[in-house]
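SAMPLE LOG
Freezer: B-3
Tube label: C17
Construct: single chain, 370 aa
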Amino acid sequence: MKSSLVLSALLTASLYAEGLEEAFKNATYDGNLRVGFQHQDEGELSIGGKLHMQTAPVNGISFGTSFYTTQGVDEKHNDGVAFFSADKHSYSILGEAYLQAEIQNTLIKVGRQELDTPYADTDDIGMIPNTFEALIVVNNDIQDTTIVLAHLQKMSGVDAEIPEKFNKLNDSDGVQTVGITYEGVEDLIFQGWFYNASDFVKLTYLEADWIGSLGGFGVGVAGQYTIQDYDNGNEVSVYGVNLTLGLEEQGLTFYTAYNKADSTNGQVAENFFGGGPFFINCEHITMADIGGDSDAYRVGLEVDGANYGFDGLGMGLSYFEGEDLEEIDIVASYAVSEQLSFDLIYGDATDNADGSESFTNTRIFINYRF
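STRUCTURE (predicted):
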């Protein structure tokens, strides 16, 4: 990432030359305090959060940083979702430290940062999300079109092999990414992505989403297709559909999702650098857990409590089935205010083959945003 370091130095010099003192004087601060409880085989409790600072822009150039921490109270297990380090200790990390430049319709961002794309995302399901050491260029010169070019070098966080440090992606070669999103057709969003991890795998991802109304109902239709092409000759392709039906007056949304994988040599469909893009992915079971040539479906119901006199309350129930695996998820969230919210996530995963992978997991979060 030598080019990124050179760019960082140039941006830093420019920022300093044009008024570093004013940039920091007018900086903005935000973040959250988070209390997380998890119970699987045993219970664990953590207190942590995020503190983010970003300087005011000087000639379109600014600097940002985020400090994350998770501090366990009593025992630490990492059963289910990783709350702690790889060796089950509390940890803190400078998860973001970036420079960004906004030049007309182009954003350039280099350094440690949060990122959300189909195969690389924050996946904020525990105490500390995934963050990436990367160089990102986002351009909006073409109307209704967003073009993303990226080089991902390292990642840390909940899905990293060692959550408490930045792990190299694809050794020292990193992952090169290009993505295009087009929103020029009413109610339609198209996106296409390509990821190149040299001497390892090439990933192609396509998705189309339509949201509209039909016969007085809110309707959503989405399709996805991806190819994971490995340099060793293995390949897996996955297609999927997701259908939603909303009853606005009743505050109800029904959805059903289906994914099917076809592979060579039993290659499974991996999530790679985050929670994965697949429509059927649950709180715990994903396409990566159900084998190579396989299919799975998921059905669910979401309820908006405001329609029943409970403002800020949302609930969801879903059922998944695929290749001897089942999962029932119950999710409830309650926003007391814009700052304070509570989340409950319950997952019951069943291994119908021999029962060895069966478990239940409960997570409770209290978030205070500032």
